[in-house]
């Protein structure tokens, strides 16, 4: 019931309130495994992608969001599941492998999985170097990769704002990328790096952001 509520009630309501401009949605294949690779501007990017993509999308979500107790905790967990989140632990190499496996399962089942190759949202507005997990998923599953550029989502809930605000939002889906030419080579780190760079360049072309060839550190990493 919550899934139906999110997709057919909450989704249209959000589209009416924010009127996001969506370009290139026809580039998303109507069936088969699809990997959406997006830039990351704000915490609410996941919701924007969910409500502007015609197919149900699955994302990774922090496991602790699903472990709340009582009626409220169960409701939050069910709501996140309806939004497409998959609970995963974070913070170590084993967690990273579990995250990739969760995405791989969605894709091998013929679904749509979304990932932010930068690993965290951009705090300076620039597009940073992509992690190779996006390539590992594409190469091991044969999924088409659709690059995505988000614009204006950082204005929905700026730092310090507790309630989402009106903002001009634009979502641009690029043409699907096919990496079948590398079939059977997903164990090559050089191939994974090359594929990741090609995906990041496609996102760059769509978004027009300044590119930085270094990984973006997470906020908690900067504080340590």
TrEMBL record:
Coiled coil: none annotated. Pfam families: Acyltransferase. GO terms for molecular function: acyltransferase activity. Keywords: Acyltransferase, Transferase. Residues 34-153 form the Phospholipid/glycerol acyltransferase domain. InterPro entries: Plipid/glycerol_acylTrfase. This is Lysophospholipid acyltransferase family protein.
């Amino acid at each position: 019931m919550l899934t139906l509520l999110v997709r057919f009630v909450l989704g249209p309501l959000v589209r009416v309130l924010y009127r996001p401009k969506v370009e290139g949605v026809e580039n998303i294949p109507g069936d088969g495994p699809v990997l959406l690779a997006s830039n990351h501007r704000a915490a609410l990017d996941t919701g924007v992608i969910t409500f502007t993509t015609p197919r149900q999308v699955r994302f990774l979500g922090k496991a602790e969001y699903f472990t709340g107790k009582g009626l409220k905790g169960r409701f939050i967990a069910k709501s996140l599941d309806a939004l497409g989140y998959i609970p995963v632990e974070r913070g170590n190499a084993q967690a990273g492998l579990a995250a990739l496996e969760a995405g791989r399962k969605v894709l091998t089942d013929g679904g749509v999985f979304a990932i932010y190759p930068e690993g965290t949202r951009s705090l300076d507005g620039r597009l940073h170097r992509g992690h190779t997990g996006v390539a590992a998923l594409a190469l091991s599953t044969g999924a088409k990769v659709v690059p995505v550029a988000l614009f204006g989502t950082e204005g929905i809930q700026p730092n310090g704002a507790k309630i989402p605000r009106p903002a001009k939002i634009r979502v641009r889906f690029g043409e699907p990328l096919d990496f079948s030419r590398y079939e059977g080579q997903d164990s090559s780190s050089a191939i994974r790096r090359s594929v990741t760079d090609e995906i990041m360049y496609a996102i760059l072309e769509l978004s027009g952001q300044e590119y930085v060839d270094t990984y973006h550190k997470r906020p908690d990493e900067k504080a340590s």
